[in-house]
Amino acid sequence: MSWQRRLYGGLWRPLTPLIRRYLKKRAQKAPAYLEHWDERFGRALQPRATGAIWIHAVSVGETRAAQPLVEALRRQWPNAPLLLTQMTPTGRATAEALYPGAEVRYLPYDYPQAAAAFLAAYRPRCGILMETELWPNLIHAAAAQRVPLILANARLSDKSLKGYRRILGLIRPAMRELTAIAAQTADDADRFRQLGAENITICGSSKYDIEIPSAQMQLAESFRRRIGGRQTLLCASTRDGEEALILDAWLAAGAAVGDTLLALVPRHPERLAAVAELAAQRGLKLQRRSDEAALAADTRVWLGDSMGEMFGYLGACDVAFIGGSLQPFGCHNLIEPAIVGVPALFGPSVFNFQQAAADAQAAGAATQVEDAAGMVSAALALLADPARREAMRRGAAAFRQAHRGASQRMLELIRATLAARE
């Protein structure tokens, strides 16, 4: 064992008070962070079943992205138990809603003993880590217990690569113990190789394979009825600091806005009150989705204060802006607008979706803007141009269709990996 790994493993115990303090601080705005602490620290290991297909998806986005792959796995192994793990309460709630019948729990923090105890208790048939979940002690424990571990939907930005290079002595041995990696793009594959990864297959992203649930389509219709005949700009998955920029740009646009409705759906529900206050400070009348009421004629901002309804919001809007891209957060899921067929805008920060952003623009499905003022200007121009919106809808359909099939490719990789172990 290298000194880096010994140091990493040894740091977890003295960090425990800080972790507890962090959870309590998060719980001030999201009380669910106080629940299931035993699971987070490797206790309460009482599996409903052993030998499960185990999927780890850190939060909401990864949990949703796993859905097409989960469906493919269930078709392949219909009798296998399913275990879903997350790190956030919103991710856990999403898993419970999307995967009825699965066992859902938190993955323990990467304490050496906790990682080993978790795997020994659940004895999964295989583990599938979604996107960029690289926990060295967990990976080493899986190798020691001969649990095949596949990194699926794997992506690695240049920013993350630079960070991991600083701890290369710790991360390289872990990367080499992963059984297989299903990378989203050739660039992702190259970045993983720079960290020492092997057995890499380029499979694409399962996010293109997601189908809109019928309940979400019905929800979109109900939202449209509540909105009435007003055109709507949706700002989806906005992050801290972005809403103020958007609201200021909306006010600055003045009469050009007309009766257009601005729908804001913040990424984190614990920030809803703060976002509502931002609108109030600017004298903008706001209604919440949760009031279940029709939108009043003088309501300027509609606050999406619900979870798991993004397809409903997208289906009810005319143009969508994808948050996390005005500030340096790397952008959130800009594939979802293409699934719905809604014209999309995104800002300058796209390191989490760099290839998808380029492909969406090339297909005519989306447009990049420089700042909030540029976003509002571009949105209003689109709202005034039905022909261009229709062209972007066709571009969105072509963009999505060109990238489908990743879930089946990942299933084939997983099936081949397990067959080689049997």
Explain what you see.
It catalyses: lipid IVA (E. coli) + CMP-3-deoxy-beta-D-manno-octulosonate = alpha-Kdo-(2->6)-lipid IVA (E. coli) + CMP + H(+). It holds the Pfam family Glycos_transf_N. Involved in lipopolysaccharide (LPS) biosynthesis. Catalyzes the transfer of 3-deoxy-D-manno-octulosonate (Kdo) residue(s) from CMP-Kdo to lipid IV(A), the tetraacyldisaccharide-1,4'-bisphosphate precursor of lipid A. Belongs to the glycosyltransferase group 1 family. There is one protein chain. It contains 19 helices and 14 strands. The protein is globular and about 65 Å long. The mean pLDDT is 95. The strands form two sheets. It has a seven-stranded parallel β-sheet, sandwiched between helices. A seven-stranded parallel β-sheet has the order 10-11-9-8-12-13-14, sandwiched between helices. Helix 4 packs across helix 19 (406-421) and helix 7 packs parallel to helix 9 (168-177). The protein is an alpha/beta fold and 422 residues long.
How many helices? The count is 19
Overall pLDDT metric? 95
Say which CATH homologous superfamily of the largest domain is assigned: 3-Deoxy-D-manno-octulosonic-acid transferase, N-terminal domain
Span of the ends, CA to CA? 28 Å
Strand content: 5-15%
Fraction in helix: 40-55%
Outline, from the CA principal axes? globular
User: What is the CA-based Rg, rounded?
Assistant: 22 Å
Describe the oligomeric state of these chains in a short phrase: single chain
Q: What is the CATH third-level topology name of the largest domain?
A: Rossmann fold
Gross CATH architecture of the largest domain: 3-Layer(aba) Sandwich
Largest sheet: 7 strands, parallel
* CATH class descriptor name of the largest domain: Alpha Beta
Low-confidence stretches: none
Task: Domain count, please report it.
Answer: 2
Strand order of the largest sheet: 3-2-1-4-5-6-7
Beta-strand segment tally: 14
What would you call the structural class? Answer: alpha/beta
